[in-house]
Amino acid sequence: MLAKRIIPCLDVKGGRNVRGVKFSADQDAGDPVELATRYDAEGADELVFYDITASAEGRDIVSDLVRQVSEQVFIPLTVGGGIRTFDDVRQILKGSADKVSINSATVRTPEIINQSMESFGSQCIVAAVDALRRPAVEGEAPSWEIYVNGGRTATGIDAVAWVEELVDRGAGEVVLNSIDADGTRDGYDIELNRIVAERVEVPIVASGGCGTLGHIYDVLTEGQASAALAASIFHYEVFSIPQVKQYLAERDVVVRQYQG
Amino acid sequence: MIAVIDYGMGNLRSVEKAFHHLGFEAAITERPADLAEASHVVLPGDAAFGDAMAKLRDLGWEEAIRREVERGKPFLGICVGLQLMFATSEEMGQHTGMALLPGRSVRFPASERVPQIGWNQADIQRDSPLMAGVPDASFFYFVHSYYVEADEASDCVATTDYGLAYTSIAARDNVYGVQFHPEKSQKVGLRLLRNFAEMS
Predict the structure, then answer these.
(1) Percent of the residues in chain A that have a pLDDT greater than 90, as a whole number
(2) How far apart are CA A259 and CA B148, in angstroms?
(3) Taking CB atoms and an 8 Å cutoff, what residues of chain A touch B120?
(4) From the DSSP assignment, how many helices (H) and strands (E) are in chain B?
(5) ipTM associated with this complex
(6) Does residue A217 register a pLDDT over 50?
(7) Which residues, in sequence order, are CB contacts of B39 under 8 Å at separation 6+?
(8) How far is residue A62's CA from residue A71's CA, in Å, rounded to a whole number?
(9) Which tens digits make up the pLDDT trace of A3-41?
(10) Residues of B involved in catalysis
(11) Per-residue CA distances from A113 to A55, A123, A124, A229, B50 (Å)
């Protein structure tokens, strides 16, 4: 049976892994290559590297890190952060990345998804979205708004409808990040994940808010996510990947147990 | 020397890197004629069947592959490479493959999330040198929307469960194919690649 995936996420700035709370202050969280190698040894199912400087220079740094990682680590590697053009996509995939994660650019130029899919195939293209819950309105269903530029700029676009469009355009997978939850360690946005997962047929990767083992369990079951992304919880060793997988396996969630 | 065919489809470098990491000589090969010098042939690929087959034909790879397969060289198809080994595919139209094995590619049923992305298990159905040292029900990394139906049961080495039990590893004589990406499947994937590289 297909396993649920546990995916550590490394935000890279200046060649270091960093972690922030709600996209604000950055704290150093270690050497990315070391972390990547350790996570692989512990049973990470994939690794994601985001260039949080979202600059061409930052992208080169991340590309080089991923190249180093790929010499030793033989699991899927995804690169994202500041991807603006089709050419950026091509450069990243020509490097050592297996997948490219595109966020703000999909809003600016949605055709980037179609074009990238046509040239490289859906399996390489991950659409990442940042969603912020709109204030609740009596009698109305909950809704979320898409933000871009690292969660800072509102777009007015409905998140659920937007994910449907991205999938129509050819995104093979969607990383759904809750801005409200991100960095809080109070749990993923279960409702957001469930609603989106019920609307589209591609796998949804939950992102933002992981604090406990139970949060991961909840988003993979009730939240219907196919995978859970987490960062600081692993980087600061609150718990480990083997602990997560053990917890999930004990509760009958199919996971790839690490075979030494 | 292991030839990794470059026909413009998919990330070949990971496959080459995996063999290098294991200590085997491997090279991305751009000319069909160069297959004559190779000891092993690998056909990778992450692409739509129709596009991939068109490239294989137009660039002269299909002929070259058949020739080397007939000479008895070990051949490994990965992902769409496996699918191209079979006779037909229904992916975005009706297409014919290399027909090294009888069977076809079919889309996953609508009951499943498509593409299948992630780690799933290969349940071994019969012995194969490709699987030496690989435990039964090991997890490998898959990303695909179509699967193969092998007409000959003996061509099926392992099945995987996703809505149904489908052939994820196929083999006959010196021809092997895997639906998953061994170069992205950590230790068991590398073991499988080593087994392939050690064949003569």
Answers:
(1) 76
(2) 28
(3) 1-3
(4) 5, 13
(5) 0.93
(6) yes
(7) B1, B2, B73, B74, B200
(8) 14
(9) 999 999 998 887 787 765 444 556 676 888 999 999 999
(10) 79, 181, 183
(11) 20, 12, 10, 22, 21
User: Which residue from A minimizes the CA distance to B14?
Assistant: A96
| Alpha-carbon gap: A137 to the closest alpha carbon of chain B (Å) | 32
Euclidean distance between the first and the last CA atom of chain A, given in angstroms as a whole number = 21
B142: Cβ–Cβ under 8 A, 6 or more apart, which residues?
Answer: A2, B116, B117, B118, B119, B120, B160, B162, B168, B179, B180, B181
C-alpha B191/C-alpha A129 separation (Å) is 37
- Pairwise CA distance, residues A34 & B150, whole Å: 43
Q: Does A130 participate in catalysis according to the annotation? A: yes
Helix or strand run (H / E) with residue B19 = helix B13-21
Q: Copy the structure tokens of residue A35.
A: 């972390």
Closest listed residue to residue B185, CA positions, set B155, B151, B160, B153: B160
Number of Cβ within a 10 Å radius of residue B106? 17
B154 vs B170: CA distance, rounded Å: 9
Smallest Cα–Cα separation from B157: which of B185, B127, B132?
Answer: B127
For B184, list phi and psi in degrees, rounded to 5: -120, 15
pTM, to two decimals: 0.95
CB atoms within 10 A of CB A72: 13
Q: Measured between beta carbons, which residues in chain A are less than 8 angstroms from residue B185?
A: 74-75
**DSSP per-residue codes, A87-137:** HHHHHHHHTT-SEEEE-HHHHH-THHHHHHHHHH-GGGEEEEEEEEEPPP-
Are B100 and B170 spatial neighbours (Cβ–Cβ below 8 Å)? no
Tokens representing residue B50 in the block: 């129709």
Q: Sign of torsion, CA A150 A156 A159 A164?
A: negative
